[in-house]
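Hey L., structure's done. Input below.
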Amino acid sequence: IFKFLGAIAVDLGKDRIKPYLLTILTPLYRELNSNYAEQDPTLKNLSQEIIDLLKKLVGLEAFSLAFSSVQKQANQKRAMRKKQRALQTVANPDIAARRKLKRHKNKAETRKRKIESLRPMHKAKRHRSHALKDLAMVE
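Output:
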C-alpha cells in the first residue's frame, strides 16, 4: 500500500497531490511512530523513503504544514483514548480492576520468562490455567 501511495503521489504531480497529502501522510506517520514489538523494519524504511519523496515533490513548507496537522490529529486521538480510559475507570471500577489484575498477571509472567531466559537452570513457578477464573476479583 505504501508503494501504491508513493506511485500515486508521483503520478499526480505537485499541484494535484496537495488535497490528498493528509490522507497519504496519515498511515505513513502511524507506521513511523509505532512502537509495537513485531514491527517490520522494511515498512519503516519504506515509509521514510515515501515521506522524503513527498517532501521533495510538494516542497518543504506545504509538507511541514500537512505533517504537523497529521501529528496534531494523532496526538488528539491518543489524548481522547487516554481520557476515555480514565473515565471508564471511574464509571466501571470492576472492569478497571479486572484489567489491572490481568495486566499485573501478564507482568509477572513476563518477569518469569525473562528470568528463565537469563538463567536457564532456574525454573520459575507458573500457574497451570489461564482461564477467566484466574482474572476474577478475589474478595
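The chain has six helices and no strands. Residues 1-118 form one domain.

-- N.
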